[in-house]
Write a structure and sequence with these properties.
388 residues, alpha/beta, Rossmann fold, 2 domains, 8-stranded mixed beta sheet, globular
Length: 388
């Protein structure tokens, strides 16, 4: 393998402890290993957070790290912007291959300098910045069109692009170059007994108790948990014979959502599970009646795919890549009257529809088999490497 360097640029954070060791649950060695078909000499340029609250299992090993100040704070935007750009410029100038994951400020700077220095670069388009910002805040609505234009420009002129969706991001951020759709989510084990267990659960469960569940950071409003909490209040009137429990998995403060649950008098129906490790996520999902993804912004949501791999009937919003995963009968319109639209879809989930959804979801989840996805990615990355 050659000694050329590949550098991965993104706004994701690395945690650095007091000993100078780096940790990450996302940008880890397993993820970065995919680029070894290009070179073994891999570096990352990411923003750094100093903390000793880490888990040893997430240690980043044998990877060169460029520490980038957070470019998305007031300090990063006003006081350190030139310093950050200059740092990224120098990194790009001295690397051979650039991988820029977008949307990200660090990624956009890397693309800019890759073009300037005629470096070979590849863009990974993983989400829509317009949707994320538009549904974030008033300031977000101001920034959304700007970030939309930036990403359109970066992706359009890229010679190589990887999209995590089949159609959504391709339509919104088209490219003139080589491109492929490869999910950033993959499943290593899909046991065929899972489907049979789910069917048995559907047939044996009491129709008077329904457990709904969502995974998402509690502080991120566009994840949409508040919509399901509001729906619980109406469900008490629409379907009084059924007791609904809504379980929410995720980091962050529950204060905002708990306050809302109390406002609608459904606090006894909402269970804040907190953070779960990956193995316990599957155990939790297996206990649900229906998984719900009420997001206003997504790429191709990992949690939906993982729920599908457990044959769990799933309801999702009509946003981004979610309609690419689920049957149209399992999709609700989140743009107008989302609470009513969700309830209307939920009311149709009788035993028969749950069984159909379980079969369809489990079958679809096989598209995300690790070996299939990584084989397609490897072929594309080799093409990127060999291009002159």
């Amino acid at each position: 393998m050659n000694n050329k360097q590949l550098t991965y640029f993104h706004d994701a954070q690395l945690i650095k402890d007091s000993k100078g060791t780096y940790f990450s649950t996302v940008t880890n060695n397993t993820m970065l290993d995919r680029y070894k078909v290009i070179t073994n000499n891999i570096a990352v340029a990411l923003r750094i957070v100093i903390s000793d609250n880490v888990r040893e299992s997430n240690q980043l090993q044998n990877i060169k790290v460029y520490e980038i100040p957070n470019p998305n704070t007031i300090r990063g935007l006003l006081l350190e912007r030139y310093k950050i750009k200059r740092q990224i410029r120098d990194i790009v100038k001295n690397t051979d291959y650039v991988i820029a994951r977008l949307p990200s400020t660090i990624g956009h700077y890397a693309v800019k300098y890759a073009r300037k220095f005629n470096k070979r670069y590849l863009i990974e388009a993983v989400a829509c910045p317009f949707d994320a910002l538009w549904n974030h805040s008033l300031v977000g609505k101001i920034l959304a069109p700007i970030e939309y234009i930036k990403m359109r420009s970066s992706v359009k002129n890229s010679k190589y692009s990887v999209y995590v969706t089949n159609n959504f991001l391709q339509n919104r951020y088209p490219t003139q170059g080589n491109n492929i759709n490869i999910s950033n989510v993959y499943l290593k084990r899909i046991d065929d007994n899972i489907l049979n267990k789910r069917i048995d659960k559907i047939n044996s469960s009491s129709p008077s108790k329904v457990i709904l569940g969502t995974i998402g950071h509690l502080n991120v409003k566009y994840k949409g948990q508040h919509l399901i909490i509001k729906a619980l209040s109406k469900l008490k009137k629409v379907l009084p014979e059924i007791t609904f429990e809504y379980q929410i998995v995720g980091d962050g403060s529950k204060d905002r959502l708990l306050k809302l649950a109390k406002k609608y008098n459904v606090q006894d129906n909402v269970n804040f599970v907190g953070r779960l490790n990956h193995d316990n996520i599957f155990k939790w999902v297996d206990d649900l009646t229906i998984y719900v993804q009420p997001s206003r912004q997504e790429g191709l949501p990992r949690s939906v795919i993982e729920a599908m791999s457990r044959a769990v009937p799933t309801i999702g919003s009509n946003i981004a890549g979610i309609p690419e995963l689920l049957n149209p009968n399992c999709i609700f319109n989140i743009k107008r009257n989302p609470v009513i639209n969700f309830i209307n879809v939920l009311k149709t989930f009788d035993v028969n529809k749950q069984i159909i959804a379980a079969n369809e979801n489990f079958d679809k989840s096989h598209d995300f088999d690790y070996s299939i996805i990584e084989n397609r990615r490897t072929i594309f990355l080799k093409k990127f490497k060999s291009d002159q």
